[in-house]
């Protein structure tokens, strides 16, 4: 199915589930929507923290069509949105047209689905995918570089790999600098401030044995975490796992060495 | 002399001339200062047009110290500033402390002095430098990607090189992606909308003969040009040739292949 068709099925509430695995080789993106008065601080935060917040498109206020997705409508083409008000979760909804504001600026942010596909294509299995689970995500002690009202620590996603595959996985993911790039850490979770690896802050824990190494990537949940600290009056994001599907191919973001 | 000392001599009005050649291997930067209400549009313009507008630092409103330059004061450490009001040139001054506003956001933008040094270090002479002239700059038909109130065409700088040196010069300058990177054009000026090469829009013309090829780089004057189109009530820039000297070494921006 074409990406455009999938977006239409989402818009028509035919597809209402998570988007993992439904878009073939197409890039999926994280969503952050903010009133324009916060847009400079957030874009500067993204520029200063490119690994957790790799912006792939900014849709200016007054617009809701992504140039990366033909005929798209950012207000309806994601299966599930989260709305936050003054730093608190307000509602989950499948359509934000009714609450859309003229001054909203939309940020589309790269997603690890892109490098996961490249790892799978190299014949390396990814445990949480095989187990049909969500990836495990953790708050760390890795501080972001603050910008304006935005500050806080980096959220990471964790994927365990056999010791002899770790170097290859690092190399593959480094080829996607605009999709979180190479890992921020591999090895002991305590070194980046994770006290109990079995209790992720988001998602589900993936067990690993002593022949495997936990590898950690900067995660697109970081901006959500940081935005909630800043408590703007309204923010819209995608619901984790329910992403925006673009017309771009994953390969477009691959920098072959 | 240390960069810090040079900045102090500039602040004390001991050094009042252009900054070309006075900072050794230190990075020099273009300056753009705008009220915060324009900062999102300008940062987005820079993100979308990285070749002409490679931002190396953003100093947030309320601040005037660059983290790239110890003990600096962005209001006094440039020998000559240009102030524009409502899109028109207003005054040239050596100190903007008196007109500084709490809501000013400062952008430091990469400068071709960095890649020129690398070309010279490779033993390739640069004609306008040998002749003690300012580089020739031209408006082109290469459109920038608009952002908010900012739009317009790219300004380029031109340097002629012997035919058999062009490939090497291209390669060297491509190693500095945050300092305008490789050229946008080499050869016939008319292909990028320059009708009369002997009449630059800024700077001074450098003659060349038929064994030489004119090579064109995206230029840090582009943002000044675009800002004037947008007519914000006040903008401060450096005067061309009178740059901000940082503590960074040119090599810090070199991506060796």
TrEMBL record, chains A, B:
Residues spanning the membrane: none
Keyword rRNA-binding set for record: no
A Pfam family hit: D-Glu_cyclase
The organism's place on the tree of life at top rank: Bacteria
Keyword terms of this UniProt record: Lyase
InterPro entries: D-Glu_cyclase, Putative_hydro-lyase, UPF0317
EC number(s) on file: 4.2.1.-
PANTHER family reported in the protein's UniProt record: D-GLUTAMATE CYCLASE, MITOCHONDRIAL
Family membership noted in the UniProt record: Belongs to the D-glutamate cyclase family.
UniProt protein name: Putative hydro-lyase ACFSX4_13445
Organism listed in the record: Corticicoccus populi
């Amino acid at each position: 199915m074409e990406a455009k068709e999938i977006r239409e099925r989402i818009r028509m509430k035919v597809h209402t589930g998570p988007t993992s695995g439904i878009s073939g080789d197409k890039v999926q993106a994280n969503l952050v929507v903010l009133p324009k008065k916060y847009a400079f601080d957030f874009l500067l935060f993204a520029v200063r923290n490119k690994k957790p917040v790799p912006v792939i498109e900014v849709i200016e206020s007054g617009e809701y069509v992504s140039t990366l997705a033909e005929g798209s409508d950012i207000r309806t083409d994601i299966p599930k949105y989260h709305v936050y008000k003054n730093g608190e979760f307000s509602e989950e909804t499948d359509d934000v047209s009714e609450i859309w504001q003229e001054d909203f600026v939309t940020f589309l942010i790269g997603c690890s689905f892109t490098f996961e596909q490249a790892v799978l294509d190299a014949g390396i299995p990814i445990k949480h995918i095989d187990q049909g689970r969500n990836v495990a995500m953790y708050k760390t002690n890795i501080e972001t570089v603050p910008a304006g009202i935005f500050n806080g620590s980096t959220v990471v996603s964790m994927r365990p790999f056999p010791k002899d595959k770790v170097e290859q996985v690092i190399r593959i993911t480094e080829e996607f600098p605009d999709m979180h790039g190479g890992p921020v850490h591999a090895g002991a979770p305590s070194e980046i401030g994770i006290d109990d690896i079995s209790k992720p802050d988001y998602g589900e824990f993936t067990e690993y044995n002593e022949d495997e190494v936990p590898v950690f990537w900067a995660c697109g949940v970081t901006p959500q975490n940081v935005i909630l600290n800043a408590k703007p009056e309204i923010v819209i994001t995608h619901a984790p796992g329910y992403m925006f599907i673009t017309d771009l191919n994953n390969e477009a973001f691959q920098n072959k060495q």
